[in-house]
Amino acid sequence: VTPVMSSPCCGFLAQYTHHHLVAFLLTFFSYVLLHASRKTFSNVKVSISAQWTPSVQNASSPAFSPGETWEQNNLFADSDGATLFLGVLDTIFLFSYAVGLYMSGVIGDRMNLRYVLCFGLCGSAIVVSFVFGTLTEWLQFYNIYLYCGLWVLNGLLQSAVWPCVVAVMGNWFGKSGRGFVFGLWSACASVGNILGAFLASSVLKYGYEYAFLVTSVLQFAGGVVVFFGLLTSPKEVGEPVERDADSHRPLMSDEEDEEGSEEVCDGGYYTIQQGDEEPRETPKAIGFCQAFCLPGVLPYSLAYACLKLVNYSFFFWLPFYLSRNFGWKEAQADRLSVWYDVGGIIGGTIQGLISDFMGKRAPVLAVSLLLAMGALVGYSHSPPDQVVNAALLATTGFFIGGPSNMISSAISADLGRQEALRGSQEALATVTGIVDGTGSIGAAVGQYLVSVIESKLGWMFVFYFFIVMVRSSCLTHNVRQCSCLPEMSHSFSSGASYIRHCVVPVGDIFGPVI
Amino acid sequence: MTAGHSQQNAAVVLLFIHLCFSGGYQLTELQVGLCHLCNGTVQNGTAVSQFCSASAGLIDGRCCLLRKENIRDADYIIGLDLSNCSLSRVEDLQDAFSATTIDLSLNPIVNLDDSLFEGFILLAKLILPANLVCPGGNASWDKVKVKGETHFCEGQKDICNQTGYLSLNCPENSLCLPYGPGFFQCSCVDAFRGYKCLREGEFPIIQVFGPLAGSTVLVSILLWVTQRRKAISV
Fold it and tell me: 20 to 30 A Cα–Cα from A213, which one of A345, A501, B27, B161?
């Protein structure tokens, strides 16, 4: 199989059939829909919080009557308690998502990708979004433990989707197809955020339960379409799978033939290569502790955790903050929050391009992180004017989304150079898992911290917390030696335009990509 | 007393007959309770009896009921005369929420519950023993006068219009409406509904999900035909 130059010109695209196009679109939109319904929760936080609490009154004034309209629901005594619980739910979701990713790799290796993907989409849509948001409201049944249990289930079911879509893309487009195609594809998370925000904001006036209803029905429909239309691999129509001669070398290293300006550099994921495998080098297994102690793993994990924390926090809390702090209607806040994702898409693209031209990532990263701190300061003092706020939001997204993607891509490149790991896919996976896992757990803990800080100290301190996190990310990143790990940060971060694509032989760990 | 007794018996019998032939009123049992809380019937010359004859109502025990055209509708109590009943406590008058005139005079009542008259939006004349104050205070009534043993409260004021009161701010999307002497309710305006009047309008389920279902089916069929129909199991 001849490696194909993935220079973005028309001739390059001619090799792809309509099957490729459909596979691209189906995987793209299934992840878009998944992310849209994931975002729904953060888009309706204000409404849910209002639904769970009785009306606010001064101590001296009598309670409003009729009680059914104003005082009846007291799942939480006041909005602070509700905010804390919302943070707890975010944390629970992230933890179970991380756990689910570990398991999905194993499952995805053994079962039909199409079934797993469909199951994840439909299951998450019905069992969770519908029951969590819509049924509890229609039945007027509010219960803390039910919400927590459903959200754990949500995390587990949603974690099945990402590895599958990535594997399908890997099957169809192979390693050589990266760059332009994957760059385009990796915007799916941000497009999902934007779609989710628009859907929620247009339906919110009927009640938050309808926002959940619409996104979960859409997601379910997506699952149905995927079931009937997805070909998981060219093998299913008798075509050979894309294969590159050097499929066992780490994707990112300077010696490799890199395709022009679209440097592929972010979000590692693992595909399942079905069928025949070329003989490969004996893998050098590496213990967990050994991997942890490799130079640079710890600093990178911490740096990545800090940045991921800020990114996730914006994802989960932005509409809530806009609504509470400026008093805007929730639907307006949802639409405004879209600008963060837009900034992230642009930031990821442009900073990636710059670092490609320069050939170095560190300077771009350092500058961007420093400017991110300034952007956060500026944003925290934003005037209550929607246009200015949107501009500041886009700027903040630009400076935070960019490094987020870059760190993960740089991780993969540098790791490949390390002696201990060169050529060893298992070790790569282990180290990836460590950095990804630490990043996700740090971000998960951070969600709860955000709600605690907000209820005790207010939003300004939340921004100080973010600035500290970005600063530590900057510092620890500079400390790092050379452990760079592939990761799928852009599942949450805004708009990566690069995807790293690691190929792992059959039977190996699917990859603890979180 | 015998005459009153037999009159009461007759009234009860009539009521039971009514019960048997009709579907059963919602308030019947309780009407029996309130209207026959104590012996006797509405005395001639009292405020309630004057009001009752003026509005062509039906006297039943101590109540004045509104004559309804449709006999199946629940009877509304429009007047209640519980004077001289030896009541020391008045617990629940909710069944008479539609009453316009209530007479509680000549009873040894010590004090009245604050919430007793909540929901009595039609109450225009309240007669109490002299030791009690008008519910909602004197400011809730147009005319308050004490005559001998009785306290007259007349003309319920609309609390929502009072400038004397601290501004009653109903939350967003709701309006202040009077709900009895000294009481108010915040009711949702226009198309707003639901808890805290947060929801507006009716979600167009058919218009949203109809096209969605249709296009899902279409796309699925299209893709199956073009993609999966020739798929070989791997």
Answer: A345
Task: Give dist(CA A435, CA A447) in Å, integer.
Answer: 18
Q: Which amino acid is at B121?
A: I
Phi, psi of B99 (to 5 degrees): -70, 145
Q: Do the strands B174-178 and B58-60 form a parallel or antiparallel pair, or are they unpaired?
A: unpaired
Closest CA to A46 of A333, A430, A283: A333
Q: Which of A194-208, B45-59, B207-221 has the lowest mean pLDDT?
A: B45-59
Contacts of residue B60, defined as CB under 8 A and 6 or more positions apart, other chains included, come to B11, B15, B31, B35, B75
What's the pLDDT at A407?
64
Is A237 in Cβ contact with B185 (below 8 Å)? no
Whole-angstrom Cα distance, residue B98 to residue B113?
18
CB-nearest to A66 from B185, B227, B233 is B185
Q: Give me A242's structure tokens.
A: 């894309």
Give residue-wise pLDDT tens across range B58-73.
Answer: 887 888 888 766 665 6
Nearest by Cα to A161 from A28, A55, A261: A28
- In chain A, count H helices and then E strands: 19, 2
Round to the nearest angstrom and report the end-to-end CA distance of chain B: 99
Pick the more confident residue, A10 or A164.
Answer: A164
| A253-256 own/partner pairs: CB under 8 Å, 24+ apart | A253/A413, A253/A416, A253/A417, A254/A413, A254/A417
- How far apart CA A316 and CA A450 sit, in angstroms, is 10
Chain A interface with B: residues with Cβ < 8 Å: 18-19, 22, 26, 47, 50-51, 55, 61, 64-66, 68-70, 72-73, 203, 205-207, 210, 214, 217-218, 221, 224-225, 227-233, 235-238, 274
* Radius of gyration in angstroms for the set of CA atoms belonging to chain B, rounded to a whole number: 28
For residue A265, give every residue at least 6 positions away whose Cβ sits within 8 Å of its Cβ, in sequence order, or none.
Answer: A252, A352, A405, A406, A408, A409, A410, A412, A413, A498, A500
Exposure of B44 in the CB half-sphere (CA atoms within 13 A): 0
Beta bridge partners of B127: B103, B152
The percent of residues in chain B predicted with pLDDT above 70, rounded, is 80
Residues β-bridged to residue B60:
B63
Before A66, cis peptide (omega within 30)? yes
Confirm if A428 and A286 have CB atoms less than 8 A apart: no
Q: What is the DSSP string of A389-446?
A: HHHHHHHHHHHHHHHHHHHHHHHHHHHHH-GGGTT-HHHHHHHHHHHHHHHHHHHHHH
**Rounded distance, CA A186 to CA A182, Å?**
6
Residue A165 scores a pLDDT above 50:
yes
Please spell the DSSP secondary structure of A49-103, one letter per residue.
HHHHSPPP--SSSPPPSSHHHHTS--SSSSHHHHHHHHHHHHHHHHHHHHHHHHH
**Angle (nearest 5°) at CA B79 between B75 and B84:** 125
3-state DSSP call for residue B88? coil
Quote the mean pLDDT of chain B: 79
CA distance A39 to chain B (A): 20
- Interface ipTM above 0.85: no
d(CA A259, CA A121): 34
Model pLDDT, residue A349: 76
For B11, counting Cβ atoms within 10 Å of its Cβ (0-12 exposed, 13-18 middle, 19+ buried), the class is middle
Tokens of B84: 């001289």
